[in-house]
């Protein structure tokens, strides 16, 4: 069977991405001498895709995925767990197929050190791994220090649930245990952060749960910002389905949180204090810890990269993709990470075959589910202009305001089908 050339690979990944469907290639032949070894750190929306697509494009490249957890819990659709519409099992995946179907060597270890000069990474147990090219996709970490009294330990009591997993379950249990007539505060973070529409979808999902189980309760969003993604569409959906159950307080109106007092279940704003029954504080964010430790970040806390290749501007042969990277106009989303993973895979395959990188194209769509039958979205296609990722004018856009119920129901279906496709792309 013919080997997938780099040009065909870019074309195929671009086309699949644009359709929002699963990219599926025929298996390609093995047996060539190894061209090099690629290590991918982090098996999430960016890393799992980069690992799989490098191997698919050129099986003669050895690919190792180092992921600290044996299971991956998806943030996309985790808000539906809070809304009571799905269980956490439905968003939990494992890495068996990566190894069995794609011949990617999966190692469960936490990388604690990257030695870019010697092209090695070190695991928590002391194991060392050698690479020719490294892909780093560690997601995010939190700037707890921006809120007085906050810490990783406090977040076990007032969960952020911004990395899906045990904290999603904790927050869900707290909502279930809350009395009817209670108040849940969501403190939304400043830009830039993972999933710009996420806190507002979460508010809708919690209101959905309240409407059916605790109708006298309220969700109040205390925002560090004065505007947010898909704001008009969210506000319209809130009003239509949840009346005054959801309230949004902008930064200018006192939404910025300066301190937390978990013992008294109180958030301290610049003007007022807010005592709640459930507190969901989503802190300001930065690139995942290993990116900080490895010196891949700049003063912003995120990783500067060549936006055409995702190669770090700081360390050669190290590529950073996904939320941790500074990727021009692309938001920090799972779909963006998937698209970047494919571009990065094509670049690395080309480099290890002695070819120049192709011209990249990137895509993103973010769906939000306001009720099980009411979805909204924002979509964009991106290109590289003067070294920066920018939106292609006229491509994508927001769901229309005042759309019919039928259109919104189709968008909610698209959201679930997008999730099925993108997670199949990662884990089957
Ligand atoms: C509530 C919520 C809803 C969301 N909804 C959507 C949505 O609808 N659509 C969308 O496109 N995006 C959505 N997102 C955003 C999406 O989850 C992220 O943008 C995406 O996960 C980023 O991918 P990533 O590869 O950068 O990081 P991740 O997916 O977080 O993957 C990082 C991986 O790296 C591993 N790791 C980290 N450090 C190490 C280390 N040192 N050693 C080994 N392994 C390591 C982690 O365990 C993790 O598995 C949502 C986010 C949230 C919080």
From TrEMBL:
Entry keyword Glycosyltransferase: no
Tagged with keyword Oxidoreductase: yes
Gene Ontology MF terms: flavin adenine dinucleotide binding; sulfide dehydrogenase activity
E.C. number(s) listed in UniProt: 1.8.2.3
Gene3D superfamilies: FAD/NAD(P)-binding domain, Flavocytochrome c sulphide dehydrogenase, flavin-binding domain
Signal peptide as annotated in the record: 1-17
Keywords annotated in UniProt: FAD, Flavoprotein, Oxidoreductase, Signal
Superkingdom field: Bacteria
SUPFAM superfamilies, per the entry: FAD/NAD(P)-binding domain (SSF51905), FAD/NAD-linked reductases, dimerisation (C-terminal) domain (SSF55424)
Domain (Sulfide dehydrogenase [flavocytochrome c] flavoprotein chain central): residue spans on this chain: 168-283
A Pfam family this chain is assigned to: FCSD-flav_bind
Domain Flavocytochrome c sulphide dehydrogenase flavin-binding: 359-427
Domain FAD/NAD(P)-binding: 37-150
PANTHER family the UniProt entry points to: FAD-DEPENDENT PYRIDINE NUCLEOTIDE-DISULPHIDE OXIDOREDUCTASE, PTHR43755
NCBIfam families from the UniProt entry: TAT_signal_seq
Protein name as it appears in the record: Sulfide dehydrogenase [flavocytochrome c] flavoprotein chain
Organism classification: Bacteria, Pseudomonadati, Pseudomonadota, Gammaproteobacteria, Chromatiales
Gene designation per UniProt: fccB_1
């Amino acid at each position: 069977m013919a080997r997938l050339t780099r040009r065909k690979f870019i074309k195929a990944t671009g086309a699949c991405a644009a359709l929002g469907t699963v990219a599926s290639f025929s298996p390609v032949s093995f047996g060539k001498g190894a061209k090099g070894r690629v290590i991918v750190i982090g098996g999430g929306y960016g890393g799992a895709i980069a690992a799989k697509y490098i191997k698919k494009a050129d099986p003669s490249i050895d690919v190792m995925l180092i992921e600290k957890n044996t299971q991956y819990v998806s943030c996309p659709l985790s808000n539906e767990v809070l809304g009571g519409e799905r269980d956490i099992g439905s968003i939990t995946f494992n890495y068996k197929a990566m190894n069995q179907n794609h011949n990617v060597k999966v190692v469960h270890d936490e990388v604690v050190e990257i030695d870019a000069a010697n092209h090695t990474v070190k695991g928590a147990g002391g194991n060392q791994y050698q690479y020719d090219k490294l892909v780093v996709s560690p997601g995010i970490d939190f700037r707890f220090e921006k809120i007085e009294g906050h810490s990783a330990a406090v977040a076990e009591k007032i969960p952020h649930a911004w990395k899906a997993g045990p904290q999603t379950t904790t927050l869900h249990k707290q909502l279930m245990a809350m009395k009817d007539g209670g108040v849940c505060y969501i403190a939304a973070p400043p830009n830039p952060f993972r999933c710009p529409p996420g806190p507002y979808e979460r508010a809708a999902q919690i209101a959905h749960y309240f409407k059916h189980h605790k109708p006298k309760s309220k969700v109040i969003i205390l925002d560090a910002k004065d505007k947010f993604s898909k704001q008009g569409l969210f506000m319209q959906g809130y009003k239509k389905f949840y009346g005054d159950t959801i309230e949004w307080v902008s930064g200018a109106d006192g939404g910025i949180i300066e301190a937390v007092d978990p013992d008294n279940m109180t958030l301290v704003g610049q003007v007022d204090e807010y005592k709640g029954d459930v507190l969901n504080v989503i802190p300001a964010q930065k690139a995942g810890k290993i990116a900080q430790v490895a010196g891949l970040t700049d003063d912003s806390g995120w990783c500067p990269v060549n936006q055409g290749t995702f190669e770090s501007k700081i360390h050669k042969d190290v590529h950073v993709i996904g939320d941790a990277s500074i990727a021009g106009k692309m938001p920090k989303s799972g779909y963006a990470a998937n698209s970047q993973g494919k571009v990065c895979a094509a670049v690395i395959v080309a480099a290890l075959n002695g070819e120049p990188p192709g011209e990249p194209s990137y895509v993103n769509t973010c769906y939000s589910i306001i009720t099980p039958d009411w979805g909204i979205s924002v979509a964009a296609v991106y290109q590289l202009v003067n070294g920066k990722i920018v939106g292609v004018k006229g491509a994508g856009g927001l769901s229309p305001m005042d759309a019919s119920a039928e259109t919104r129901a189709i968008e909610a279906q698209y959201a679930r089908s997008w999730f099925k496709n993108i997670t199949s792309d990662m884990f089957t």
